[in-house]
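Hello,

Following up on my earlier ticket. Below are the two sequence lines again, exactly as submitted.
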Amino acid sequence: MVIAAVDIGSKCEYLHGVAHHFVDGYDTNKIRMWEREHLRLFEFNISHTHCLHFLRIFQFMTHDLMAEKNLQGAWTLMKALGCLAMAHLRLPSSNHLSSRPLSPVWHSRCSTNAESLPLQSLLFCCIFITSNLSICRLRSRSWSTVKVERQGDVAVLKIDIPNVKENVLGEALSGDLNEAFNKLENDDSVKGIVLMSGKPNSFVAGADITMLSKAKDVADAQRMSSEGQKQFARLADSKKPIVAAIMGSCLGGGLELAMACHYRIAVNDKKTQLGLPEIDRTRPLLERVTSAVTNNRVVLDNVVLKMARDKVMKLTKGNYPAPLKILEVVREGIVGGPAKGYAMESQYFGELAKTTQSAALIGLFNGSTDCKKNKYGEGRPVKEIAVVGAGLMGAGIANVTIDKGIRSVLLDVNQSGLERGQNQILTHLSTAVKRKRLSLLEKERIVTNLEATTDYSRMKNADIVIEAVFEDLSLKHKVVKQIESIVRPECIVATNTSALPIADIAKASARPENVIGMHYFSPVEKMQLLEIITHEGTSKQTIATAAQLGLKQGKLVVVVKVGLDVAEHVAHFLSGALGARVGGGNPQIYTDLVAAGMKGRKSNKGFYNYGDGKKGSKKANEEALKIIKKYRVAAPADVSSVEDQQIRVLCRFINEAMYCLQEGVISQPSDGDIASVFGVGFPPFWGGPFRFVDLYGAEKLVTKMDKYSRAYNREQFAPAQILQDYAKSGKKFY
Amino acid sequence: MLRAAQPLQNVRQASSAVKRTGKNVVLVEAVRTPFLLAGTAYKDMMAVDLQKEALRALMKRTQLSHDKVNHIICGTVIQECRTSNIAREAALLAGFPDKVPCHTVTLACISSNVAVADAIGMIKSDYADAVIAGGVEFMSDVPIRYNRKARKAMLGLQKAKDAGSKLKIAGEIAKNLLSPELPAIAEFSSGETMGHSADRLAAAFKVSRKEQDEFAIRSHTKAQEAAKAGKLKDIEPVFIEGKKAQTVKEDNGIRVGTIEKLSSLKPAFIKPHGTITAANASFLTDGASACLVASEEWALANGYKPLAYLREYQFVAQDPKDQLLLSPAYAIPRVLEKAGLSVKDISVFEIHEAFAGQVLANLNAMDSEEFCQKWMKRSKVGRLDMNKINAWGGSLSIGHPFGATGVRLLAHTAHRLKEEGGQYGVIAACAAGGHGVGMLVEAYGK
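Thanks for your patience. The regenerated structure is below:
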């Protein structure tokens, strides 16, 4: 159900799925009926990619005008679906407009409806603006973030925050908007208002996160929320028609702003992205629709909300508090009326803004934003890469490169391996076509960038060669030498290793300054993280070029600086020299599993029997369980509560992260957090190991570790020095 | 006049024996997908996919930047109506910029010869420097339509107002639902199928069943030898994605049978006394081809060593009933005449093998004084040396995707000239409607 997914993210993909579910789901007929009764308004075309394209916007607008009296209802339905109408507004000239088949309808209807005449000029005004025709400016006025231009009796409000790429809804903007709006509201010569962005590709990208973090306490955050509600309500209640003209990102608070307007038109373009508000800021959107769907509270509580709640629990396992609160707010809005609903919303908003989850997620947002920036300088341009080894990783790397328009040569020594890799890429792209994320044409143009071959000489034009062959030092040496014998001298040789020290690999190289580690995570298509690992000899330009490629591939880039000492350290880590710190388990269990032919997906059985790949055919492997049982050790009872079990596993990972910071492998805590969340799946609601220590308390963690070290091997649980220091001083990483 | 006055810089006159005008046009490279029996590995694709593969393969092999291509022309016969300008759709899918104009041509089995001829014209007229000509045929899927009555009723449905007439129309549609209309296999003008006509042609020129079967076996044997020796260099593998992903690397229609086996087959068209059987006729094939045709200056300036010169072409047309497949007999002498060459000057013949009987009938016709006098008002052309004809197999064995065969013939001719050290090669092919083509190819740099 809709409600459930509202919180999962502001990503339009979810929105798509949800809206689809809503329309095609069990209550389709009811919605349709409701629609028919009230409006006969929508022609849904929820089949497009990231944003929902309502291609027949002109019809929509005409109907919308006709249905002036029902507008409020229409608005509510749209809000519930999280959808906006999307305009097909690429009009080269006004002639074109009049040649549209719909225009006669438009004119006849408008002319019979005296009330909508100012609106007509208003909408035309929008069209002129979006089609970049010159506007005759009569008067204009500007604030620092908002400009007002006038065309006839229509005022055009342009949001343009200076010196940033994206508009965000912060204090300055909302203040300016408020002022500008006050002025227009009281100006009788203004008959209608158009709200749009002065930036080409950003309407409003959402609320300003820093504003949120600045909230001192719960009451402060609550105040922010209710002020926002009031502002939006004023827009919505305005007697003058307001049209939001959207192009570019319209996310979260930005979408709410657009929703608060009376009409929305948008440019039908991929860059136009609509996304529901984040977890914390969802107004009781559903009240009216839900009541239209079911007026019966028993049904509401036991069917609609229960379904939603179940879905939320299934997806979040209760680790995110917001979705459940949203459901409460929705219920309150329906049962107790909008006023109570809004009050409850801002109350919960205040509370949620100050949860640990909120802090963790905001931290992650900031950290990942940081990782999307190029901090490493200008690299050399990369026009073509080569990937050696067409395994899961190799093909994945090629995949995320060709779809960014960079030619990639995918190489493998044997034909069948190459075919497998090729198929992986093509299947992945075909799935995207099936799900309408790509058009067939886009897919094929991406495929054109791929050259799969067993002929190594084809890599000769590459700017970067990434090798993703088996993790074996002598093999890597051989491959590096082979690559260098073919490519141009300035070509970078990157190795996708997760275990071998780059310095060791670079030993085989004639040009070690061009050797770097690019550690992707499997599956490359999905995992956002890229660790760039340097050795002492790696040149700055090599780092910059590799980072640039990573960023182009859409990855969060973390550069890990590994000096010789640390390389040594990693090597020892692998050879088991770290001993007890990584000990505790019995590796014999894997030897036994492998000996029994249970090699995981490769052999179709491991811990699981993978079956025929159909849903539900993956089952726990009884034989593997027997092997596990053989090595089972009894856990000491006093460290085996659920929390202890969790912390026991977690603390050793966290401890290693501490060592990384202590030894300079990573340069800042946020790198470690991003790497942990996006690379190895550290729970996002804890924000990563460093954030976890802050939130959980270093001292408390050290105490726990002491307790475990008494029950187990002392060295396994010895806290890193840095952790002990933080525990003693009470200092925080953030 | 102005142009004629300009010296042809860097352009070698390959042979002074041949008079010619305008720029030298060369074949830079020619590729094709493996040709497969319809309903085999390609069966889930579309024609546009195959053409796209051929275009992509050509670009990969030549390593040419897409924006250097001035125009793309593809030939096809049975059109998928969703991609009626298949050249454009395939080019877009193959990654060509949308600024490259593309058009599709059709002339039955010589469609891609038309594409090549158009390309030559474009270059000679200074409209373009580099043109891709190709073609595709996809027999694994053909447009099968509702019959005319059903179509008429469907179109009428929109106009029907009341329930009664709607119901009547619905009944009409239902009645005709199960008798679909297949793509025509008979000549529209004569109503005769091509096989039937070929059988009559073979009989008229006294080609025996045995000769036909032997010629078919020869075609398969030659093709098999050439494939084994790696001579079919125009083939580029096609990767097919999916659960059973595979790379198709070779033609799958080559099958050398025994004379006993072949002679045991029943006639396919004229029963029971006809001589054309499934084994001595070409089979339904999926496949696509593409070649890069350019002016010699352009090719050299861009670092290519062309495969061959494209010298002359001549399209001909005859009575679509009695001489439906006899056009090679007309086209070969005419194209030679045009170039001032005789049969003896030609070292390579690539004659399209629609039916074994058809090829042999054409050879007999050219060697017949009576025929040449009566129909061409000339003395007989003479018998072509069998060793020069289709030495690497032909449409009988390799397959015959209608729209793609022309470029395949061209590739064979060019590669054979190189391999055999000959100077001139002639392509000849027949096509529905009584059409035919002859093309003169000259070895490059000989």
